[in-house]
Recover the amino acids of this structure.
């Protein structure tokens, strides 16, 4: 069966129509004619497998990764980088229009000159089968483990440490199932290992301590964070601020694009020395602390206590005294704040903001709200609510934080209709 591909989903699947229904086709590019096999029939849509490309897009390329069509971690390696950026912009535009009902021009996606080897963090799955351990990624939407020898998204140093781990898995005394996170500092190249899962606390990981450049080893075992070796944190530097990152704290995985993201937020904020700022979902302060250098006062709210402790320590280390951090869920803490803020910054997880946060931000924001999102769908949903509450979208800047995947980060500037 042949199908003309006319669109793209937020997951990077091509979209066409067959038998009067939408059909979703992984690895198909808009503009192509493809031969497909229907794999799933739903009431409102179909899912198909790409069998053959009948008429190929000029943007189609051979995916360089040998695991690409099995792994599921990437979804755009079959097209060139310029087309990836075009489609990500289209996804943001389509979501704002279809879900948000917003007719606003989305800026071109800010991409990378070299969109490979950009990740400073990788999470490997480890499983024991037939008395031997394997390490790799789970197939998308399954628990099937694919052993991976090389990943083109991580640095050579992270890949070398991962290879060393893979060769010594049987000697570590790991549980039958666990996760291993490798992190690398963009500031000094140091490496951190975190073994996560029930029973990892008993693992014999001390002999890894001599690996060159490995500065710390942790185990996260059923709520216990066990420091096994080396430094207590990983050093990072972003936007001129030095950070110490604890093993489970969130930090952007793409350092180059994170620098750009912070710069865009600063441009949108237009802060002066008298401005008060609130940031919800502040993490370890990677946006909060750079903004603090231009603001009069800034307050950050974060649910993960470890990240709040990191943020406070990072402020102290950088001699930034005009900021404060509160530990607690944003939907509980922010509504209880009585003061007004000149600028409110929100950087929620993929699920977006809860209604309590949106309502509180509308009341708290005197001038502007900046929304940083990693999910165009929930972004559009939340922007619709903000627009109904008297805020208008002024600028939408997507950033390619995750090249070769369908994910896109978006920074949005809103202001009151009457500033």
């Amino acid at each position: 069966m042949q199908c003309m591909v006319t669109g793209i989903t937020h997951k990077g699947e091509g979209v066409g129509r067959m038998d009067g229904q939408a059909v979703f086709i992984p690895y198909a590019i808009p503009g192509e004619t493809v031969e497909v096999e229907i794999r799933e029939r739903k009431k409102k849509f179909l899912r198909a497998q790409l069998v053959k490309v009948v008429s190929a897009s000029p943007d189609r390329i051979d995916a360089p990764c040998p695991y690409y069509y099995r792994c599921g971690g990437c979804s755009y390696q079959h097209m060139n980088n310029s087309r990836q950026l075009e489609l990500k912009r289209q996804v943001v535009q389509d979501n704002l229009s279809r879900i948000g009902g917003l007719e606003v021009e989305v800026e071109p996606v800010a991409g990378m000159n070299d969109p490979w080897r950009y990740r400073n963090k990788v999470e490997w799955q480890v499983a024991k089968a037939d008395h031997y351990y394997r390490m790799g990624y789970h197939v998308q939407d399954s628990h099937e483990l694919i052993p991976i020898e090389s990943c083109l998204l991580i640095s050579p140093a992270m890949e070398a440490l991962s290879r060393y781990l893979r060769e010594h898995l049987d000697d570590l005394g790991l549980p039958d199932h666990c996760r291993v996170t490798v992190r690398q500092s963009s500031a000094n190249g140091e490496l951190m290992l975190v073994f996560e899962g029930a029973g990892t606390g008993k693992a014999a990981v001390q002999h890894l301590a001599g690996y060159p450049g490995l500065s710390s080893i942790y185990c996260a075992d059923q709520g216990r964070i066990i420091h096994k070796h080396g430094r207590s944190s990983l050093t990072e530097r972003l936007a001129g601020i030095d950070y110490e990152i604890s093993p489970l704290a969130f930090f952007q995985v793409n350092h180059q694009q994170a620098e750009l993201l912070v710069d865009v937020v600063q441009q949108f904020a237009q802060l002066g020395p008298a401005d008060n700022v609130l940031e919800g979902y502040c993490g370890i302060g990677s946006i909060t602390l750079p903004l603090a250098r231009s603001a009069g006062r800034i307050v950050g709210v974060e649910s993960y206590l470890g990240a709040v402790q990191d943020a406070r320590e990072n402020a102290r280390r950088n001699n930034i005294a005009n900021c404060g951090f509160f530990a607690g869920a944003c939907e509980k803490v922010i509504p209880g704040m009585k003061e007004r803020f000149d600028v409110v910054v929100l950087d929620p997880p993929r699920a977006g903001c809860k209604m309590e946060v949106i309502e509180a931000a509308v009341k708290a924001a005197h001038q502007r709200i900046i929304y940083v999102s990693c999910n165009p769908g929930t972004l559009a949903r939340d922007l619709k609510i903000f627009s109904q509450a008297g805020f208008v979208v002024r600028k939408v800047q997507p950033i390619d934080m995750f090249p070769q995947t369908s994910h896109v980060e978006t920074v949005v500037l809103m202001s009151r209709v009457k500033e």
Summary: The first strand starts at residue 2 and ends at 4. The two ends are 55 Å apart (CA to CA). The chain has nine helices and 22 strands. The chain has a mean pLDDT of 96.
